[in-house]
Write a structure and sequence with these properties.
about 775 residues, Serine Threonine Protein Phosphatase 5, Tetratricopeptide repeat, extended, membrane, transmembrane, Ankyrin_rpt, transmembrane helix
């Protein structure tokens, strides 16, 4: 009995001591006292596997998260001093609550040096999975850590014999069926996706449990392509001036080294702007010098060629030919400046434009961030097209038409049972749910999102894809009309070959393109402010589709015996009401200002500065030039303010019929706001001209800056209304509405079904 009691006491004391050491280890790690942590690792092997945080992290997890390379190396060395190989393996494989090992964290944070220290000690960590079924290689791909990914790829494949099937089925797919290529494309890590395509070509045609291939995901990212990017005029010039290197396949030495570092990363953040200016200026000067050298080389090779042709030896002639070939190739320096779409002599101009643009951004307080943003956009647009080409070139007709009914696994069944577990068939799950849906092909997804690059390339490689339909029997034209994508619709309008077959199509409910143009969806596609302008562009889109094709191309009635006009009226009733309310509020606020301006203008127009002469009744200051300016501006302010008031009152008394939003109401609003702006400007001019006579002679020279300063608060109202005014002009003058850049999900869920699922989830809770 005494022995048992002593054993219990010893166990209790041991547990208490272990708890105390855990607290000490946690305190040292949180305070950054890593020397003490390493000492505890060397003294007590139990500290190697101690989970010291609420999330279950060990001290090694924390050191990896903070990027402490040297500390991690010392901690791994301390673990390896233990001669028990099982202990070393268990210590490095210790997982937190999400079942992430230290190698998972190093991979997802991009610490390639730490990955090298841990993975070389215990390569079996590459097969460890977290709660989502992700290996360290997958974590590196999910967060776009290219150096870490290449190194882990090298570690897991370096010991494989020639001809052996690479075991990427173990490390490149997680529980939901997504592969590393899915995650790289979803995260816009196109440089990493390019390497994955060349290292794991079979993943190009793999699909996840939702039946989506990498091409499906790429087609659902319109912002990654030039056709889905919005750029201003100045930004567009800079965009075309920038040259982006195309992606290249990584060399084997890059799989296990991380020596490359950007020179800019060595600079402190506050010196980045100066560094960018130096690089741009250096590029411009180097280009100018390179052009001079290029011209000199060209002249020199012509002289050599002429001399050799005149009477040189065969050796001289061959030397001249070689020199001519080198010069035409440009040589190392000339080729570097001659890349792109433009000649060398234009490169200097482009670099000067970039230099002045960066200088302007510095003056505006934005530094080079805008230039870097444009450069990143250009890289994304260029690389996305390159990824698209790589995916399509490696896809056969059968693979392109795969609707994703089963997540494919290119691995032979006899190689791994784990591959079969991760490739769970969605066909069985859909049979249980009784709701099997046909997945849309990439060209249909691209049509919904307005990605014309993918549409053109798919049609070029797979012409039969133009007749693809979704489960609702909608083809690319119907989807482009439904999702309000004018660029895609106009693309097929210009192609007469497909006109008859595409535009006659109706969906399973008998809706033609005009029916879908009349139907308002659940999303707001147009990038304009105000419900009235939204309604105006809805009408313009309907009218554009209606007038773009002959009437006999569209069905007059669908299966519900409704015409497009009836559908338009039913689906836009809420927008008509909200547009009328928006116009009412806008007109009321503007009419108040117009009335105030009219009152002030009338008072000022009747008051004569300096008074009248008693004998003649003429103004005393009629000979002054400022007096003429006062009388004319006050009259203009009165006339335009009255006109603005009349226009706003006419809007308030309108019927707000649906097609009134197309021309009648917007024109009245434009005329009213234009008159209001003119009346405000004229009122300020008349005030300044009348006040000019009050100033003393000494202050009259400084009258202009004084009036500009005092008039600034009043002009804030007009400046605040300018965005709305420009939107009005844009929507009224454009015949075709501006396209939407909002991405449409790859898998769209019915709102009613989604609400039912939410209700069921609430009941279960």
């Amino acid at each position: 009995m005494a022995q048992e009691l002593a054993a219990v006491i010893d166990a209790t004391m041991s547990s208490e001591m272990e708890s105390i050491k855990k607290k000490q280890l946690f305190t040292f790690a949180m305070k950054g006292q890593w020397e003490r942590v390493i000492e505890m690792y060397e003294e007590d092997p139990r500290a190697h596997k101690s989970r010291i945080t609420r999330s279950g992290d060990t001290a090694l997890h924390i050191a990896v998260s903070e990027g402490k390379d040297e500390v991690v190396a010392e901690m791994v060395r301390s673990i390896m001093t233990n001669q028990d190989q099982l202990h070393i393996k268990e210590a490095l494989q210790t997982q937190n609550n999400r079942r992430n090992t230290a190698l998972h964290l190093a991979a997802e944070m991009g610490h390639s040096t730490i990955c090298e220290k841990i993975a070389t000690v215990e390569p079996s960590l590459l097969a460890c999975r977290n709660s989502d079924g992700e290996t360290p290689l997958f974590s590196a791909a999910r967060f776009g850590r290219k150096p870490s990914f290449l190194f882990l790829h090298y570690i897991q494949n370096r010991n494989l014999p020639d001809g052996f099937f690479p075991p990427y089925y173990v490390n490149c797919r997680r529980n939901d069926g997504d592969t590393i290529l899915h995650c790289a494309i979803s995260g816009d890590y196109f440089d990493l996706a390019f390497q994955i395509i060349h290292l794991y070509e079979d993943l190009v045609t793999s699909v996840n449990e939702d039946g989506l291939s990498p091409l499906h995901l790429l087609a659902a990212k319109p912002s990654s392509f030039r056709s889905g990017s919005r750029l201003g005029r100045l930004e567009g010039i800079i965009y075309h001036c920038l040259y982006v290197e195309k992606l290249k396949e990584a060399e084997p030495r890059q799989f296990h080294t991380d020596k490359h570092k950007d020179d800019q990363a060595k600079c402190p953040p506050n010196y980045r702007v100066l560094w960018d200016i130096v690089k741009v200026f250096k590029s411009a000067v180097t280009t100018a010098v390179g052009n001079c050298q290029s011209q000199a080389n060209t002249k020199r090779q012509k002289n050599h060629h002429a001399a050799a042709s005149a009477g040189g030896t065969p050796k001289d002639i061959e030397k001249a030919k070689n020199h001519h070939t080198d010069a035409s190739a440009g040589g190392p320096e000339v080729r570097d400046h001659g890349r792109g779409l433009f000649p060398d002599n234009y490169r200097t101009c482009f670099n000067l434009v970039k230099f002045f643009y960066v200088a302007l951004m510095i003056i505006l307080g934005q530094g080079s961030s805008r230039l870097n943003k444009i450069r990143r956009k250009k890289e994304k647009n260029t690389w996305s097209v390159q990824i698209m080409n790589e995916l399509l070139v490696r896809a056969s007709d059968y693979e392109y038409e795969d609707n994703g009914s089963k997540p494919d696994s290119p691995i032979p069944e006899e190689l791994s049972s784990l591959a079969l577990e991760l490739s769970t068939s969605t066909k069985d799950r859909d049979a249980k749910d009784g709701n099997k849906r046909k997945k849309e092909t990439p060209i249909l997804i691209a049509a919904k999102n307005g990605v014309t690059e993918i549409i053109k390339e798919i049609i070029r490689l797979f012409p039969v894809a133009i007749y693809d339909e979704n489960e609702e029997k909608k083809n690319i034209v119907l989807l482009a009309v439904e999702k309000r994508q004018p660029h895609v619709y106009k693309l097929f309008l210009e192609n007469n070959f497909f006109k008859e077959s595409l535009f006659r199509q109706v969906d399973n409910e008998g809706n033609s393109a005009l029916h879908l143009a009349a139907k308002r969806g659940h999303h707001a596609p147009w990038r304009v402010s105000g419900a009235a302008l939204q309604m105006q562009w809805e009408i313009k889109w309907y009218e554009f589709v209606k007038t773009s094709m002959p009437p006999h191309f569209f069905a007059h009635y669908n299966k519900s015996y409704k015409t497009p006009k009836e559908i338009f009226t039913e689906t836009h009733s809420d927008l008509v009401q909200s547009g009328g309310e928006w116009l009412t509020k806008t007109s009321e606020s503007c009419s108040v200002v117009a009335t105030l301006v009219a009152t002030v203008a009338f008072t000022s127009s009747t008051a004569v500065p300096g008074g009248l002469e008693e004998a003649t009744g003429l103004p005393v200051l009629r000979e002054e030039s400022a007096f003429d300016l006062f009388t004319i501006s006050s009259l203009v302010a009165l006339c335009f303010s009255i006109m603005a008031t009349i226009m706003f009152l006419s809007i308030l008394t309108s019927r707000y019929q649906e097609f009134d939003f197309n021309r009648d109401l917007p024109r009245k609003l434009i005329l009213g706001m234009s008159s209001l702006f003119m009346s405000i400007a004229s009122m300020l001019v008349s005030f300044c001209a009348g006040h000019f006579f009050v100033l003393k002679a000494g202050f009259q020279k400084a009258a202009l800056p004084i009036y500009l300063l005092t008039s600034f608060p009043v002009t804030l109202f007009a400046l605040a209304q300018f965005p709305l005014y420009f939107d009005l002009l844009k929507t009224t003058l454009k015949k075709v509405p501006q396209r939407s850049y909002k991405a449409t999900p790859v898998i769209e869920h019915d709102p009613e079904t989604k609400d039912k699922k939410n209700e069921e989830a609430q009941k279960l809770k």
